[in-house]
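ERR on first pass: missing label on line 2. Operator R.T. fixed the label and resubmitted. Corrected input:
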Amino acid sequence: MILKSKKIENTIKENGKKRQKLLHIFKAFLVGGSIGMIGQGLYELYFNVCKLSKDNSLLLVSLTLVFLGVLMTSFCIFDNLAKHGGAGSFIPIVGFANAMTSSAMEGKSEGPIFGVGAKIFSLVGSVFAYGIVATYICGLIYYLFKVVI
Amino acid sequence: MKSQTVKVNNVFIDSIGIIVGKKEKEGPLGKYFKNHIKDSYFNQSSFELAQKELSNQAIKLAISKSRYESKDIEIAFGGDLSNQIFVSTSSINDYYFPYIGVYAACASFNLSLILGCIYIDNQLTNNALCFTSSHLGVSEKQFRYPNEYGIQKSSTNTTTTTGGVAVILKNKKDKVKISAFSLGRIVDVQSKNVNDMGTCMAYAAIDTFKVHLKNMNRKIADYDKIVTGDLSLYGSKVFHDELLSENYDLTGKYDDCGLMIYDLKKQDVNAGGSGPSCVGLVTFSYFINKLIKREYKRILIIATGALHSQISSQQKQSIPCIAHAIEMEVNYDY
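pass 2 clean. output:
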């Protein structure tokens, strides 16, 4: 049977609302900011100390962060960090690495083809799909502005 | 509805097998759990196999404590949260008894006990094995996100208990008996929030509770405890407050298994425990002990289940809920 009343609706809404918003924003800022700082530190290291080109340094920063994300996920550390970090930990590239690694780890018991290989994109698949669509649209707009006009 | 409630006269608890995970052992009821596993893999290669092992061990424990041997068990009922209840089905590979698989999400265990009662009370069998199991890793994988995925859980999320429970029912007199049960109706409050199942399940629990009291012609004073399965911090408040507004005062008489099994302040479990084994673990360790010692005379166990699937929730369909109640009491004739 379907139970419907204003009171029930309000209770569901009241119980389902997000709590401790301010605290979460603050923690996300701290965690996200720290990841950004580590990235900047890595850039300084590669650019100034290792004397690499700017492009190569930037590429290596992303690679290092992805590696750290994968490593932390496989040692079951990342989810504990993300519990506090929230958006601060999944917006930077480490979050992307975590989404792929965690899905792949989950698929391990189902074998290399239908498990790891197929499941690795279960969360990030839409990032790729819509990322490619978005680049097409951006490219089209760019073309119209720069070339035609 | 009158047909929802059935009185049973001849069903007794024979033996109990319980095994829990590490977190449950560390919880406030830890001393009631004699068997526990040290890590979530239980020496297996996947969480699913670990849950199968939990289920298997619980059944073995129940049979070893029972007056029956495994070849004397006449029927088995089991269910869990894994896809197509595969874990329950495969965990009794070694045995020869007939088996009925049940699914009522977190109310599966109560449903299997109810079916056991029907079989025994109608003299179809002399005994029945009822079992369930759940594993945090298996449920997370199936209903939520990958276990290691870094996501901030909502405060209304519950934590699936890791453990296995098996109970053997019989028609020979013993200390504790099942005196009645009420089957639930589907209650849908049009909630689509899978992160807060406690709230929508609470209305199913309220419905079954009122039906049971009315059909049995009982008052709250007739019970020592009213226990719900896994309504979480938020759902149990809805259950308590809604009933209070309808003049059912449960003050001091109400407990929720999901809130008892973990220490919500110290253990990181958000809104409490859930899962099909949650209600069984608490009822057949803590509450059964109270009944055996005759500290309680009669208790009502209401297990609730949210019967959604991963696809239905992605399609934004509302969550149908159900609650099955079992009344247990001390058998003073024994």
